[in-house]
Amino acid sequence: MGIIISHPSLMRYPQMLRQFLNTAINLLLPHRCGGCRRSGTILCEKCALAREPADPLDVPDTYALFTYRDPVVQKMIWALKYRGVQAVGEQLGARLYDYLAEDLAEASQLGGDDQNWLVVPIPLAPTRARARGYNQASAIARGLVHRGGHDFVLAENILARTRDTGSQTEIRERNKRLKNMRNAFAVTDPQAVRGKQIIIIDDVITTGGTISDARRALARAGAKIILAGAIAHG
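The structure assignment produced for this chain is given below.
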């Protein structure tokens, strides 16, 4: 599906250069379907239809495309997060838009149907962002914005992490996960959020703690309508 440059000799280069090199190489390499390995696509229509859908989430106004139990979905998320294949996020972000289109249209009617959606990816902790060189949630958000058109605006810097919460995957108990994410986010520009329609984007939702805390921060800043979407749940 692509590669990410991780040779130690490259760590001396600035983050921007390493990200550029990773992006350039992945553009040159042919992509293959995560299911059937057909060349030229990240996920073909046949394999997309064969994926196990996500169970309904118990977090209000929060949606996911697939269950994380699906091994193909796991493989694609891994390629996005750890192998630098941002095209996975962009193509699945477009699929996420298609999945959410009806809910977004209904929510816009409640909001007056007179403004853009701000698409807000969940930010990484600064140390993790520097190490990875990109944010996988931003790649998903870009795909959604591209498919959604002019009514959708990528807002990458609206949210900031107030502290490094570590990896949620290392915390097994649900209550501890939720507690770990409390007050983990702050809105950097409340004026840009006040009265807006917002969709929060993440790659995987587990307990919903990350989304819930981001939603609280945005609501406190005055956001009018807040939806959330992810590629997988589990």
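Interim note for the steering committee: Confidence is low (pLDDT under 50) at residues 1-13. The CA atoms of residues 89 and 140 lie 4 Å apart.
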